[in-house]
Amino acid sequence: MYCDDSDMKIAPDRPSELFDLSEGAASAFVREKSNGNMEKARLLGQSLAQELGKERGGLPYFGVGIFDDDRSLSQRRLLYTYIVSRVIEDTAPNSIVAQSALSAFYDQIQRETPEYYAAVTDSAALSLYILAGRSEPDDYNALGRTFAQLCGREEDPVFCHYGRELALYFAVKCTQAVLRAQMIR
Q1: Is 50 contained in some domain?
Q2: Range in 4-18, 59-73, 122-136 the model is least confident about
C-alpha cells in the first residue's frame, strides 16, 4: 500500500531551526538586560519584599485594627505575597522579566526574614490563594472568602469583604510599584 507523505513535515528544512528557541530565549535575556529591564525587575522585587520586613509599617500592615490578630496578620502577609506574584506576572513585559522580579522578591525575603520565607515556601494557604485566583481570576471576592476562611472566619461576611478590600489595596499598590519601575515593553 502506497501512502503519499509529501505534504507532511516533521522537521524544518534547516535543522538549526529546531534549536532557535533556546537561542531566542538567550537573546531575549540579553535584550532585557541591555535595555535595563532586568535591573529594574530586580529592584522592584527587592522593594516589594522589603514591605514584608517593615514590621507593621509595610503594605501588608496597612489599616491593622480591631479585626486583626496573629492569624489575620499572617494571612495579610500571605495574601500580599500572592498579590505580588499575580501583579508581576500580569504586568511585566514578559516572563523573563517577571521571573527576575519574583526571584529577587523571594531572595530578599529569604535574606531579611528567613522565618517568613520558610513559611511562605511551605504554605498550603498560599496554594489556596493561587487556586482562588485561578478559579475566579477577575473576582476579588474569591480571594476575600479565602482570606476569611484561612482566618477561621469564613462565615463572617464582614471578614470576607475585609479580605477582598485588602487584596484590592495590595493589587493597586503593587501595580503602582510596577508602573514606577518604568520597564520597557
Answers
A1: yes
A2: 4-18
Residue 1: inside a domain: no
Q: Report the distance separating Cα 105 and Cα 44, nearest Å.
A: 8
Residue 85: which of 96, 73, 72, 101 has the closest Cα? 101
Residue 44 lies in a domain: yes
What are the cell numbers at 173? 499598590
Output the nine-digit C-alpha cell for 60.
501588608
Q: Assess contact for 78 and 124: CB atoms under 8 A.
A: no
Global pTM?
0.84
The reply to whether 13 falls in a domain is no
**How many domains does the chain contain in total?**
1
CA distance 107 to 109: 5
95-112 and 20-34 helices cross at what angle (nearest 10)? 60
pLDDT tens, 71-97? 999 999 999 999 999 999 999 999 999
Host domain of residue 40: 24-181
CA distance to 4, 142, 149, 150, per residue, from 154 (Å):
63, 11, 4, 8
